[in-house]
UniProtKB/TrEMBL annotation:
Pfam families: HATPase_c, HisKA, Response_reg. It comes from the Bacteria. The modification 4-aspartylphosphate is found at D77. Keywords: Coiled coil, Phosphoprotein. Its EC number is 2.7.13.3. This is histidine kinase. Residues 143-191 form a coiled coil. Gene3D superfamilies: 1.10.287.130, 3.40.50.2300, Histidine kinase-like ATPase, C-terminal domain. Residues 28-144 form the Response regulatory domain. Residues 198-412 form the Histidine kinase domain.
Length: 412
């Protein structure tokens, strides 16, 4: 017989507007802990009537319960007999039904190795014992909120894809004119772009809340280890915001929604600004970035787009370069053009990765799903930006090892 308790609690909703859940529904939460006293503590903290809480006293019972029931969040103790929390989490992340359920580890161990091991096992977050009630509720509600929005995003994407497929079939079957078909598809693309913009805004709101409270904690926390983890949260949120912004820019560039402003651009100043923005990553990777660009090189182009391109190429180089190695950013005059290049000692591009970067929107769906080591969405943006500037882009695997990415733009 399973050692499982299923209880439902009804208490007034929290008044803190930031952590109110967006829908009045029962969120299914599974608590896995082999110590009943810990369960009682969590019961008293998570006494909100928007939760329906189930309990399992060991990993095997938790797995069996997840087979029979669906959950929105799992609070998982690390130190348990037979199967520890890491093993249970890895199992959940390997199964289709449970791989998207956010897991928060419950742990008394705050050493960096244990925390990193938890994230590598697939956990989204952790809470330390003894539990801080406000922190626990905040983390639970944040991950429930994000999961809810992600589910909505998937459902809306699926619905939109079905609508596109259905509409396309109608157009084929009715043999309408090419002009009419293009107009209809363009309307659907606009809907996808508007939807992307809406979802970006929806995701930004909870992220801003997380960053705001994390920054408040940053100024009040004195423990160096905890301060480092708070900064990890801030960096992760900033990265998610950057991904959202990049998706919107990709859409704008892809469908000619971006209005270019052609000016004279100082290559040196743009490179310097890009390196400044990437300082945290450069410091984390312990990379030396060497700049060999004359200050009088002025090119013709859109300063914002050129800046984004430089930042993404340098970021790709710093990310893939071996720790404590050097990244070289340089430029040379080639007739009436300036050739700008970024060179690193990292893993080289395969021919497939080069093709993937330069012909992304010409590939079929299966080809786009390949897993590459050096490819990033940022490089697709760089290619689109250079196409708008009618610029030459080149990726070169160096004979001595490493990669050089270069692009050539006209002198102003």
């Amino acid at each position: 017989m399973l050692n499982i308790l299923i209880l439902t609690f009804s208490v007034s909703m929290t008044t803190d507007y930031l952590y109110n859940l967006p829908e009045m529904k029962k969120y299914q939460i599974l608590i896995v802990d082999d110590i009943p006293d810990n369960i009682k503590v969590l019961q008293s903290i998570l006494s909100d009537d928007s939760y329906e809480i189930s309990y399992a006293l060991n990993g095997k019972d938790a797995i069996m319960l997840c087979v029979a029931k669906s959950f929105d969040l799992i609070l998982l103790d690390i130190m348990m007999p037979e199967m520890d929390g890491y093993e249970v989490c890895e199992y959940f992340k390997s199964k289709e039904k449970t791989k998207d359920i956010p897991v928060i580890f419950l742990t008394a161990r705050v050493d960096e190795e244990s925390i990193i091991k938890g994230f590598e096992a697939g956990a989204q977050d952790y809470v330390t014992k003894p539990f801080n009630p406000q922190e626990l509720v905040a983390r639970v509600n944040t991950h429930l909120d994000l999961k809810s929005k992600n589910q909505k995003l998937k459902m809306m994407n699926l619905e939109l894809e079905e609508r596109v497929a259905a509409r396309t079939m109608e157009l084929v079957e009715s043999n309408q004119s090419l002009e009419h078909a293009n107009h209809q598809l363009s309307t659907l693309e606009d809907a996808k772009n508007d939807f992307l913009s809406l979802m970006s805004t929806e995701l930004r709101e909870p992220l801003n809340g997380i960053v705001g409270f994390a920054e408040m904690l940053e100024f009040s926390i004195k423990n160096k280890t905890n301060l480092k983890y708070v900064r990890y949260i801030i960096q992760a949120c900033e990265k998610l915001t950057g991904v959202s912004d990049m998706a919107l820019l990709l859409s704008a560039l892809r469908f000619d929604r971006y209005e270019m402003k052609i000016l004279g651009i100082s290559v040196y100043e743009v490179v310097k600004d890009s390196i400044e923005k990437l300082k945290p990553l450069i410091a984390e990777r312990k990379i030396k970035v060497k700049v060999e660009i004359p200050k009088n090189y002025i090119i013709r182009g859109d300063e914002k787009l050129f800046g984004i391109s430089m930042e993404k190429v340098i970021e790709n180089a710093v990310t893939n370069a071996p720790s404590r190695s050097e990244v070289l950013v340089g430029a040379s005059l080639e007739g009436q053009s300036v050739k700008v290049f970024v060179q690193d000692l990292g893993v080289q591009f395969t021919p497939s990765e080069v093709n993937y970067t330069f012909h992304f929107f010409e590939l079929n769906k299966e080809d786009r799903r390949q897993d590459f080591k050096r490819f990033t969405a940022g490089l697709v943006v760089v290619k689109l930006v250079m196409d708008l500037h009618k610029a030459i882009v080149d990726v070169e695997n160096l004979s001595e090892g490493g990669v050089r990415v270069s692009f050539q733009l006209p002198v102003y």
